[in-house]
Amino acid sequence: MKILGIESSCDETAAAVVEDGTKILSNILASQVEIHSRYGGIVPEVASRHHLLPVIPVVEQALSNAILAPAGLSAIAVTNGPGLAGSWLVGVNLAKALALAWDLPLIGINHLEAHIYANWL
User: What are the DSSP E strand ranges found in 1-121?
Assistant: First the structure.
């Protein structure tokens, strides 16, 4: 089972492909650290807007690095909270669109629970 995961709950846009729940085939990250450093912290509206440009290239790169076409996926997982609503909506909307277009199940993931389970990857 190969799952594409999409994460955009705060100020980083990420996508990964995981096989059988434990093997990371790819992990791509687009950071906004430089953008927010001038403000001394994360500005929610700025963060959400800066997910829009990298989110599709990040997903494409994750699939490419995993040497995988959409037809090879079993499902799409996406962070659906908690986090900055404007930010995670970018990932959720892309994940919904891809799941619909590729006829794949969509799995909502709690961001905090994912931090706990990441220890087993």
Answer: 2-7, 12-19, 23-31, 75-79, 106-109
Instruction: Name the domain count of the chain.
Output: 1
User: Which residues, given as ranges, of the chain have pLDDT below 50?
Assistant: none
Give φ, ψ of 23 to 5 degrees: -100, 115
- The pTM (predicted TM-score) of the whole model is 0.94
Distance from C-alpha of 100 to C-alpha of 29, rounded to nearest angstrom = 24
Residue numbers of the domain that contains 23: 2-120
Nearest alpha-carbon partner for 30 in 4, 2, 61:
61
User: How much is the pLDDT for 63?
Assistant: 99
Report the CATH number that the domain containing residue 21 is assigned in CATH.
3.30.420.40
Q: How far apart are CA 85 and CA 45, in angstroms?
A: 10
Contact yes or no for 47/11 (Cβ under 8 A): yes
The answer to whether 48 and 86 are in contact (CB under 8 A) is: yes
Residue with tokens 């995961």: 5
CB 80 within 8 A of CB 109: yes
